[in-house]
Task: structure prediction
Amino acid sequence: MHEQLKAELRAGLQAAGLPFAEQEPLAAHTTFRIGGPAEFWCTPHDAEELRTTLECCKKVGARFYLLGNGSNTLFSDEGFDGAVIDLRGLTPSIAAQELQQEVLLTVGAGMTLGRLCAEAQQRALTGLEFACGIPGTVGGAVYMNAGAYGGELKDVLESVSYLDEELQLHTLPVSELNMGYRTSIFEKNPSWCVLSATVRLKKGDAAQILAQMQEYLERRREKQPLEWPSAGSTFKRPQGAFAGRLIEECGLRGFTVGGAQISEKHCGFVINKGGATCADVVALTEEVKRIVREKTGYVLEREIRVVK
Result:
């Protein structure tokens, strides 16, 4: 990012009174704890500040990246030569619409799935139990159709409001979001920004919902390397198989490149054992993909997003 562009973006953000910092270490904002500095780190508090921040970036031609909880993102060791926009400020109060046996909950894209699950349980609403423990935001969950334990967000999603590349507001029903396994229409349109999502949940029993959530959380603690920085499941599930099982069958449990390692607890996870770089993780995943393809014929695809 050349100095003239930086000066123009800085001036635009300052003139609009928008909150931002410069040279912000991205490792502090991702669950992998990896990544160099962002030239600009923008923290809009609401949808209007977000729109103005995006306008500033577009006006000067600056790159931007929309970030939620950083739980599925691997930033380059060199950082990001543009503006990383933290969407976690988009967490307005929950709006509820009571139906006969269901309730529609509308929440901001920056709300964590954990908080949304807790709200649903406290309101005795069932349907989100599968999402308990997924460490992302609602916006990120929409973007990749997050799922676990046989459930996916598309199963309960009603509609999504977003800004398009021209910063126009739209709302689409789930039927028009092209949601599939770890993908959605937003993945193919990365300049679109999710503002809020509405989920349709059924009325249930709060105690039963809590018990199911606790069971899923316990399964995660038992089977996943939650004690180490990671970005969750590293590879998408190939059709007819499981990535972790294939990696284990290829003798790659504990396989290490630099500070990155295939978890010995769960082979579907790459963990940061300390000092891992983006280059370490990329090199490790490429080698794992090569070995798995040669030994099993399956082609693994990374689930985590590598941002350079």
